[in-house]
Amino acid sequence: MACIFINSIMSGYFAWHGNTFCDHPTVMYISGSISTGLWCAACMACMMLAMNRCCDLLKPDWMETLFSGWRTYFWLLAPTLYGSYFIIFTPPLIFTSIYDGAFFDPFVGTPVSDKEKYTSWPHTINNVIVILVLCTAYSCICIFVCIKSRPTMGGQRNTGMSMLQKQIIAQATLICMLILIAASVYVRMQFAETSNYMVIVGQITWQSSHGKLFFE
């Protein structure tokens, strides 16, 4: 909820009023630090969700061993600590109305912009890992679903998946796809010139990846 407030409500306010980092440096720095940490926490949670779905389909016994009972709380602690690291120890994403998106370079779009100086490698590594993990995990899930849906020798389809499993997979895929798109766009944004259209796509998918959970 906090991240939605920052990357939707506050960013909308800054965009409407044409604000940049120089207008509200303290507010943008603090809110940027929090939103960066929450984004990375969401990334880890999403990778755990992908692993959970893979275990549920491919190794149900692992699912019981890793995620049942009190172990769930242990898994929830990991994103909390991971996100806290990014809030405290890494540079924040700063929203700018010049591009209607968030960048590590607070002066992006100005003559003194220096993306190399303000690059956050921990954030980039986080996004690259998210892209690799989600692509791998959901490729495995897609292959499994295709195999299970393939007609058998008698012409009937396999019934190895329950309706609940299918619904959960569809839900998890949608949530993780939003994070995958946002991560991909933001990796590009930090290192190369990106069109305003793609910046807005990155911003919207970032917002949606957090907001989606409240509409399930």
Number of strands: 2
Using only C-alpha atoms, the radius of gyration works out to: 20 Å
How many helices? Answer: 7
The proportion of residues in beta strands is under 5%
From N to C, what is the helix and strand string?
HHHHEEHHH
Query: How many separate domains?
Result: 1
Describe the sheet with the most strands.
2 strands, antiparallel
Q: What is the terminal separation in angstroms?
A: 14 Å
Shape: elongated
Instruction: Tell me the strand order in the biggest sheet.
Output: 1-2
Helix content: 55-70%
Helix and strand composition category: mainly alpha
Average residue pLDDT:
83
Transmembrane segments: 27-51, 72-95, 128-147, 168-187
Pfam families: 7TM_GPCR_Srt
Keywords: Membrane, Transmembrane, Transmembrane helix
Protein name: 7TM GPCR serpentine receptor class x (Srx) domain-containing protein
